[in-house]
Design brief:
The structure is a single chain. The protein has helices at about 15-25, 50-55, 95-100, 120-125, 145-150, 170-185, and strands at about 5-10, 30-40, 80-90, 110-115, 135, 155-160, 190-194. The chain is built from six helices and seven strands, in the order βαβαβαβαβαβαβ. A seven-stranded parallel β-sheet has the order 1-2-3-4-5-6-7. It is α/β, with parallel strands linked by helices and about 190 residues long. One of its GO terms (biological process) is tRNA processing. It is found in: Nucleus. Keywords: tRNA processing. Pfam families: RNase_P_p30. Its main location: nucleus.
Length: about 190
């Protein structure tokens, strides 16, 4: 993929012709249409072993279900705007991510973003090379060593400033996280979005 110039939006939730025309009018060159999957609904992990055994006894096969939805198809012929598909996965253990990797629809996405729901998963996903973006919430703690590993693997950190609108405590936490990433990474591999 060629390197985009100008404005980019890496997390567009809804797309129609008027939104696409607005992006073109404001000079955007790349947008990523986002699909979010909450993997806590997948049923992968130690707590669901009984449920899986019961499902196997009843003849239900969970492997037939594809947990990743098909990407949104956007028909647009303008060469000024590149539209890609992004998959955002919210995970609470690393096994859920491996199940996503085995999905047939996973191969149809251009960008993979992972939102770890705890610190142990955050440490585990830094070792994977197939992740493009790690979505950091304001409770995420990052060491300089973890940041260096992510830079070497070409993983970007994403900080959402939307939670800043909730209250002043969330605003302070998000600004602290953004400042921490700026200091540790010296302005490398960061994405800020709403």
């Amino acid at each position: 993929m060629k390197v985009p110039y100008g404005y980019c939006d890496f997390r567009v939730e809804r797309v129609n012709d008027s939104i696409i025309n607005t992006f073109i009018e404001y000079g955007y060159t790349l947008i990523a249409v986002n699909t979010t999957v909450n993997c806590s609904l997948l049923g992968v992990g130690n707590s669901n072993r009984k449920k899986r055994k019961i499902a196997e006894c009843n003849g239900e096969n969970n492997e037939e279900n594809d947990w990743v939805p098909t990407p949104k198809v956007i028909n647009h012929d303008d060469s000024k705007l590149t539209i890609v598909n992004r998959l955002t996965v919210q995970i609470s253990n690393i096994g859920q991510l491996h199940r996503i990797f085995n999905s047939q629809n996973f191969k149809l996405y251009n960008i993979l973003a992972v939102e770890p729901l705890n610190d142990q998963v955050f440490q585990d996903i830094l070792t994977l090379s197939s992740i493009d973006i790690i979505n950091c919430n304001f409770k995420t703690s990052i060491t300089p060593k973890q940041y260096t590993i992510a830079i070497e693997k070409n993983i970007y950190f994403e900080v959402s400033y939307g939670p800043m609108l909730v209250n002043y405590v969330a605003r302070q936490d998000v600004l602290s996280l953004a400042h921490l990433l700026h200091i540790k990474g010296k302005s490398k591999v960061k994405i800020y979005l709403s």
